[in-house]
Amino acid sequence: MYKLAWTQYKLGQMSSALRSLEKVIRAGKEKGGSSGPSRLRLASEASKDLVVFYAEAGKPENARRYFDELVGAKKGRELIEKLAYFYADSGNRKAAQEIFSSLIDENPQSEKAFEYQYQIVSLYATSSTSNEFRGELFEWLNNYGPGSQWQKSNDDKRELVQKVNQLMESTLRNHILQIHQTAQNSRTKYSQNKAKDAYQLYFKKFDSGEKIDEMHFFFAELLFDMGEFEGAAYHYNWIVKNAPKSQYAEKSRLNTVLALEKALPSEKDLKDRLGDSLDPVPLEKNVKNFLLASKQYEETYPKGENVPAIKYKAGALYYYHNMFDEALNEFNEIIKGYPKSDYAKNAANLTLDIYNLKKDFVGLEKAGTEILKNEDLASGQVGTQVKSVLQQVSFKKAQDLESEKKYQESAESFKAFADQNPGSDLAITALFNAGLNFERAGLLAQSANMHESVVKKGGKAAIKEKSEKILPSLYEKVGRYKEAASMMENYGSKNPKEKEAIDYLFNAAVIQDGVRRYRSAAKNYQEYFDRSRSDDKYDTLFLLAKLWEQRGGISKASEYYGRFYTSPTKDKSAVVESAFRNAEIFRKKRKNSEYERWLKKTVASQEALSKNSKSVGVRFAAEAQFDLVKGRFEELTKVKIPANPAKQKSAVDKKLSLLNKLKDDLKSVIAYDDGPTVVASLTLLGQAYQHMAAAIFGAPTPKGLDEEGLK
């Protein structure tokens, strides 16, 4: 029958095979018979095979009752357990789970209950990301893991509990690493959250273990990928604090810094919060944590390749909190320790910016000078920028001295700037400013030298033009008349439409006139007259007349005096003078009628121009009037008293008449109240009286006069 059962089994007749095997077992239980021992042995063998046969032909839910009835409760308990394992090994997960669960329910706190649940978990191990596996695994951990009622009930079995925990830890860890890998591949929130939940369960159940550092590290990596940077920083830092010898220690220390950096406010937010204030701002908690982690990393790995980046970030945070001293300390260490790095360049720029914000130009200059001592920085773009900043600082110092009205010091500072920075865009401006401030300080020669340099060096056309305008007046003030006139003339010629340039032609002519460069003066006077639209341009005719007169060109002078006399000039006094000077020219030319005509014009113009205003040209009118009156004296002296008594009386009467007329005419001269002509008039009158007396006493005495007649 036993062989029949196996034959039927092999033929696939499972139900028949099970019934045949059942008969063998039942037969072995019957008493009596000659084949008793053999029957018992076959029954025992059949019992062993019962699990295999039942698994193929029986139903899991009926298995326990079937085994108990067939072989008894004790043996049935053994068989049902074997059936559960057989189902598990053959892949019948549902049947295996059902039987293992029933075994657990019989005694949840038994030693084997843990094993049964583990077998259920293992049923789904091949699909460890499935919800079934996850559910069974978490149930296993919750019901049998650390802190569970099962572990409390089996607390006296230390070795068992330890073994259980190790198995649970490794199982959960492997599960977590698998779903973490899935999350890394898919990058979906769902898969990431599943992994996160698993990690959280792990750390809830296990706070130590051989791989605990690894789990903290991988969980931190997951949280970092999920953007949960503070959580990531916590788990990285756990390794730093609790597993300093871990293979993940150095990376964790760095990643702690990186994660905390990700949780920092943006530079824009920090800038917006500061506004224009320079007052220090308290550090936020996340900023403090970052700075602490940064400092710890630097202290632990002082030569780490990430140190300059970390130090720069720390310095920048201090900078954006207006904690300038702390920022400068970080930046200085970067500049000195990592001069070739980009961080050194950025640190140098922010260092200068800090001093600039504080208006600490002394500190700015000192810091810039120190930076330039670093060859790596000095030779690159940063060096160029620093030099530019130092130039601006030096320029600003000179400007501040100017604002304080320390003009000589300012001028010297501007000059020093130009000398030290000849290639700077500000060099020409500095020379110009030096010139202005030397002039303000009364140092005109030095001022002229500065403006000369501006003109020679060229550069900005507008500044050069200003110096060209200023230089002539400086030359004039220091007695460099020829140069003053030359520059004025050149400027006037090069800028024909500019009003100032036209005026410079006039000024050049005046100076040239004064130094007897008459030809140049005449040319510039004439050009000024031709180009100027000013009302006073007609005064130039008068100056040209005087110039030609000084040169001996009296005819040309007379022409200009005449043009000026008839011009619409407003210089009334000069009009009177021009008439008088023209009269003098005609006197020299012995053109008496013209001479007399212009003398009369002198007198008439003076009278006309003085009617509605104060007297003008008095001296010239007085002198002209005096010259007109002098003719009376000459007439008087020409009348001779003859020896003929009959004619003497007539001659004397004529002389007396002329004397009286002279006296009356001189009154009109004296009326001008011009000192010199008053003296001249009185002198002339005295001379007339003296002449009259001498003429009478010197006249021939008539014959036949007695003594009384002579009297």
Can you walk me through this structure?
This protein has helices spanning 2-10, 14-29, 36-57, 63-71, 73-90, 93-106, 111-123, 131-144, 149-153, 158-186, 189-205, 212-225, 229-242, 249-262, 267-274, 285-300, 307-319, 324-337, 342-357, 361-372, 375-378, 381-403, 407-420, 427-440, 444-457, 461-477, 481-494, 499-514, 518-531, 539-551, 554-565, 572-588, 592-609, 618-638, 645-670, 675-697, 707-710. With 711 residues, it is an all-alpha fold. Among the domains are: 534-613, Serine Threonine Protein Phosphatase 5, Tetratricopeptide repeat; 617-711. Helix 10 (158-186) runs antiparallel to helix 11. The longest helix is centred in the N-terminal third of the chain and has 29 residues, at 158-186. The chain is rod-shaped. The protein starts with a helix and ends with a helix.
Tags for this model:
about 700 residues, mainly alpha, Serine Threonine Protein Phosphatase 5, Tetratricopeptide repeat, 37 helices
Q: How many E-type strands?
A: 0
Mean pLDDT: 86
Strand content: under 5%
Number of helical segments with 4 or more residues: 37
| Largest sheet composition | none
Q: How far apart lie the N and C ends?
A: 218 Å
Task: Name the structural class.
Answer: mainly alpha
Low-confidence stretches: none
Classify the helix fraction into a percent range: over 70%
The shape is: rod-shaped
Q: Write down the Rg.
A: 64 Å
